[in-house]
Each structure stands twice: as structure tokens, then as C-alpha cells.
Automatic annotation (TrEMBL):
SMART domains found in the cross-reference section: HhH1 (SM00278)
Primary role: The RuvA-RuvB-RuvC complex processes Holliday junction (HJ) DNA during genetic recombination and DNA repair, while the RuvA-RuvB complex plays an important role in the rescue of blocked DNA replication forks via replication fork reversal (RFR). RuvA specifically binds to HJ cruciform DNA, conferring on it an open structure. The RuvB hexamer acts as an ATP-dependent pump, pulling dsDNA into and through the RuvAB complex. HJ branch migration allows RuvC to scan DNA until it finds its consensus sequence, where it cleaves and resolves the cruciform DNA.
Originating species: Bacillus selenitireducens (strain ATCC 700615 / DSM 15326 / MLS10)
Quaternary structure, from the entry: Homotetramer. Forms an RuvA(8)-RuvB(12)-Holliday junction (HJ) complex. HJ DNA is sandwiched between 2 RuvA tetramers; dsDNA enters through RuvA and exits via RuvB. An RuvB hexamer assembles on each DNA strand where it exits the tetramer. Each RuvB hexamer is contacted by two RuvA subunits (via domain III) on 2 adjacent RuvB subunits; this complex drives branch migration. In the full resolvosome a probable DNA-RuvA(4)-RuvB(12)-RuvC(2) complex forms which resolves the HJ.
Annotated ranges, domain Helix-hairpin-helix DNA-binding motif class: 72-91, 107-126
Classification via HAMAP family: DNA_HJ_migration_RuvA (MF_00031)
Entry domain remark: Has three domains with a flexible linker between the domains II and III and assumes an 'L' shape. Domain III is highly mobile and contacts RuvB.
CC per GO annotation: cytoplasm; Holliday junction helicase complex; Holliday junction resolvase complex
Superkingdom field: Bacteria
NCBIfam families, alphabetized: ruvA
Taxon lineage: Bacteria, Bacillati, Bacillota, Bacilli, Bacillales
Protein family (similarity comment): Belongs to the RuvA family.
Compartments (UniProt record): Cytoplasm
Protein name: Holliday junction branch migration complex subunit RuvA
BP GO terms, sorted: DNA recombination; DNA repair
Amino acid sequence: MIEQIRGTLLYIETETITVDVHGVGYLIHCGNPYRFQEWMNEELTVFTYQHVREDAIRLYGFRFREERKLFEKMLQVSGIGPKGALAIATSGHPGKVVAAIESEDEKFLVKFPGVGKKTARQMILDLKGKLGELLPDLNDHNEGQKPVNAVMNEREPVSDNPELDEALEALKALGYVDRELQKIKPVLSGESMTTDAYIRRALQELLK
């Protein structure tokens, strides 16, 4: 297994980043590639998980080892594949995911893409009581936030539209400011599209 990759960040796309390691470009799938924007053309370390199946070998990337650990735990749940596990582990709320599982909060869990009531219940059945090893490390990465144990009954909702959120992050990376994006967000919020489609639609509005 490839545990981590250290190299120069060359490209960011809507689902992947490309990291150059001594002339070899590694394509890494990420939950939100634009989290790595600050390292563009600079050296960075990405913690990776190598997923192998009959028709593909993919690398999934994470900023922290703890996100990867949560991703690996999610893969153990029936009904959750790599894409769904990636969205959950890199949502920006890994501690809250653990808290929701421990407190059997299905309403929080079903807000993730592809997670219905049946899958949320399966997550709780499969993982409750098995995520304690993640808690200290997750607290370490929650700088400026309350510890995991403090959010057991006080959670912020997960975005109902992560594709739109990723599109807005991508537009910020292109240089658009919050004032411009807030102006077009109501137009985009009424539509259901992929991240790429949101970006194209947003650019049409911004260029009017």
C-alpha cells in the first residue's frame, strides 16, 4: 500500500489532484481537491489509500491520517463504496461523524450524499463503539473548534448540496470573491447539478 506521497502539486480538478514526484505524476482522488489549493506548485504531503478492484486501481488522498482511518472504517460498512466513504471522511466534520455514530444520530448521517436511513443505521450497527481510537487525533486537528466529546449533542448540519459547495470553492480558487459568489448562489441553489455543471453555470452568470 502507498502510505503517503510527497511531491509538487501540479493540477487541481473537480475530483482529483496531480502530484509530481521526481517526474512521475500521481493522480489522486480527493473529497474536495480545492482544500490543497494553497500548495499549488509547492511541495506537499498527501496521505493515501490505494483501492484495487478488477477494473481500476485508484489512489484516494487525505490531508490527515485520521481522515484516512475514518475512510477505511467507512469502507467496512455494507452499502458504502469509496466515493461515499471519501465524502464522509473529508467533509470537514470527521469528529462530528464519529459523534453522530456514537449517539445514533441518523438525521445527521443521512445528510451525506448517498446515505439513506438504511445505510445510516448500518453505519451505526457496524461502527458504534469501534471509533474511539480516532477521537484524540481528531481533537488535535479541530483547531479553534470544540473537542469531539463536546459536540455529541451540538452539531452543525452537513451541507445539503456538497457539489455546489465544491463548485464555489473552485470559483474562489479562480479568484472570485465571496461578494460575487453570494450574488449568484441563489440562482444556483435552485438547481441540482454536478460540480462541473455548477461551475459552468456560475461562470455564465458571473460573465453577464
